[in-house]
Amino acid sequence: MHRAKDEIHARGAEVVIVGNGAPHFARAFREDLGLTTPLYTDPTLATYRALEFRRGVVATLLSGRTWLHALRAMRAGFRQGRTEGDALQLGGVLVVRPDGEIAYRYASAEAGDHPPLADVLAALGPARPAAAAAGSGPAATSPAGGRGA
């Protein structure tokens, strides 16, 4: 999603990443990828449990689809570095409105499973005119139990 941040910002929203490694690993992750979006970490996995995101060996390592996702990512130039945090924990994508309403939820079924970008953008609504978007700026909120990196 961070590669689509300009499209997301045009809709008055922000990309917020929540990982589960230690804070010093999150800082290194930010630096390695050159991230400018908010990045939090929840080593306790409380956020993942609250969102009912899947965790387990079958969905992360033993699924044939996981290996297909890995191959697709490698062909696109992505390389998996050393995993920090809970490697068995899957993630997902949420679109959360300013009032806290979850407008869109996607829970990954296996490692490397991501929602279609078009679905996420549709949940965010149409892009704002440039002048209106520049004045409002995107908003970000910290997840429960998260620590900034």
- Please count the beta strands (DSSP E, at least 2 residues each): 5
Largest sheet: 3 strands, mixed
Radius of gyration: 16 Å
- Helix content bin: 25-40%
**Reading side by side through the largest sheet, how are the strands ordered?**
1-2-5
InterPro entries: PXL2A/B/C (IPR032801), Thioredoxin-like_sf (IPR036249)
Region (Disordered): 130-149
Structure description:
- The protein has helices spanning 5-9, 23-33, 46-50, 57-62, 64-75, 117-124, 130-136; strands at residues 17-19, 39-41, 92-96, 102-107, 147-148.
- It has 149 residues and is of the alpha+beta class.
- The longest helix is centred in the middle third of the chain and has 12 residues, at 64-75.
- Strand 3 (92-96) and strand 4 form a beta hairpin.
- A 3-stranded mixed beta sheet has the order 1-2-5, covered by helices on one side. It has a two-stranded antiparallel ribbon with strand order 3-4.
- The chain is built from 7 helices and 5 strands; from the N terminus they run αβαβαααββααβ.
- It has one domain (2-125).
- The chain is globular, with a radius of gyration of 16 Å.
- The protein starts with a helix and ends with a strand.
- Residues 130-149 are annotated as: Disordered.
- InterPro entries: PXL2A/B/C, Thioredoxin-like_sf.
Keywords:
three-stranded mixed beta sheet, globular, alpha+beta, 5 strands, single chain, 149 residues
List strands and helices in order, with pairings:
Layout: H1 5-9, E1 17-19, H2 23-33, E2 39-41, H3 46-50, H4 57-62, H5 64-75, E3 92-96, E4 102-107, H6 117-124, H7 130-136, E5 147-148
Parallel strand pairs: 1-2
Antiparallel strand pairs: 2-5, 3-4
